[in-house]
Each structure stands twice: as C-alpha cells, then as structure tokens.
Amino acid sequence: MSKTNILYQHGTLALLVPGLLDGTITMKELLEHGDTGIGTGEGLDGELIILDGTPYQVDSTGKVNIVSDDFTLPFANSHFGNYQQLTEVKDLSQSDLNKKLLTMTSSNTFFSTQIHGTFTNIKTRAVKKSQKPYATLSKTAEDQSVFQRDSITGTLLSYYSPMIFDGAGVGGFHHHFLSDDHTFGGHVLSFDGATGDVKLQQFDTLEQHLPTQNTDYMKFDFSDWDILGDIHKAES
Fold first, then answer.
1. Measured between alpha carbons, how far is 145 from 87 in angstroms, rounded to an integer?
2. In angstroms, what CA-CA distances link 176 with 8, 18, 64?
3. Does the record carry Lyase as a key word (predicted)?
C-alpha cells in the first residue's frame, strides 16, 4: 500500500548551485517512490513532470518526450497521488493563486496542488543539457528557452516547501506544467490567468534522499556559496 502522506525528494536544490549536475537516480528508481512528480535531468536536461506514472520531459526545443527508465536526474520530487478537491478558481494570476492557496492550507508543511484547466499568457522554460565540467546553476540556467501560449488547457503540478526548508527545495511554490495535447510545458515562469479545479495533497513526512555514492557531492564544500541567493535567482 502506497504511503500518500510522504513526499520523496532526491537531491537538493542546494547541490545544483555550484554545478553538481550528475544524474544520481534513475527514473525507474524515482518511480518506486511515486507516480507524480517533478525534476530535471542530468546537466539540467529539460524539465520533468510525472503524471499518472508517466514521466514527461520538456526539452530545450520545447518538445515533450516520454523518458526511459535509465534517464537520470540530479534532483526530483515524487509522491503517490491522492489529491482531494480543494476549490475552483477563475482567471487568477500566479501570484494571486499562490496567495489564495496559502489562505486555505498551511505554510508550515509540504503539500502539492494539481490544477487542471485553462491558463492564459503562460510562460515556461526549459534548460539545454550541459556536459561536464558543469558550470554553476545560474550560468547553466542562462542557456534556457522560454515558451509562451496565449491560452492552453493542461495540468499545473505544484509543490510547496515551507520557508524553513529553503535550500533543500525552493521555499514557497515550485510549478511545472504540461498541456493536454503534450505540445507545451516546462518550469512555469508566470501566467496571467488560471481557471479550473484545484486539488490538494498534504504531506506530514519528507523523505530526503542524498546522493551519497557521488564523490563530487560528498567532497564538495558549500560554505563559501550564496546557496539561497543563487537558488532564487535561477528559479525565478
């Protein structure tokens, strides 16, 4: 029986900051911990969204691919979906949606929301895969493609991390999107309006998995890095 109260996270956003971008978990291994999730591939290879057990990658050309079991990731979240209806929204901007969700939940625990509906003036991004020796997160993220649609129907999959966990993840919301027709998606930069059903799944347990078999990670000294500043620069 799946444990739907657990959010599984492989890696941390902090390890991406200095460019520790090796893939340290396979998609097959990740899917053992959930049928829903987000992440990025080795070398920041695109943006991942897992829906109903199927892992989709939006690459830097905007193409949506289903990735193989041996696709590797340096960072990912996954969980077993058990969403409950929360509310309906109409023409809410990204910032207004975030505010509304926090009035109906708690900012002191992890949760995921899933919104299926129509989104207007939505902008997403995906980063081009880089090779070793990797540059920093902020430098690698400069080589990104930005995509936009005036109006499109699809699924917004979001994770919220409490601010006290900022660095392990993104303190606050982290949104990924996939259109119903699988022609558009990625890490969400902004949207003007969201209209649709909002479902919520709250977690009381974070299962944090670290890449202890990766020598570069285990030997790295993070003390001289502005981890939080670089995360927020790259994720905004």
1. 33
2. 17, 23, 13
3. yes
CA 140 to chain centre: 17
Whether the bond into 133 is cis, omega within 30 of 0: yes
Rounded distance between C-alpha atoms, residue 212 and residue 216, angstroms: 9
Say which DSSP state 121 is in. E
What is the residue-level pLDDT of the chain in tens, covering all 236 positions?
Answer: 579 999 999 999 889 999 999 999 999 999 999 999 999 999 999 999 999 999 999 999 999 999 999 999 999 999 999 999 999 999 999 999 999 999 999 999 999 999 999 999 999 999 999 999 999 988 998 889 999 999 999 999 999 999 999 878 878 999 999 999 999 999 999 999 999 999 999 999 999 999 999 999 999 999 888 888 877 777 76
Q: Which amino acid is at 103?
A: T
Pick the closest to residue 125 from 40, 43, 53, 202 (CA basis): 40
Single pTM value for the model: 0.96
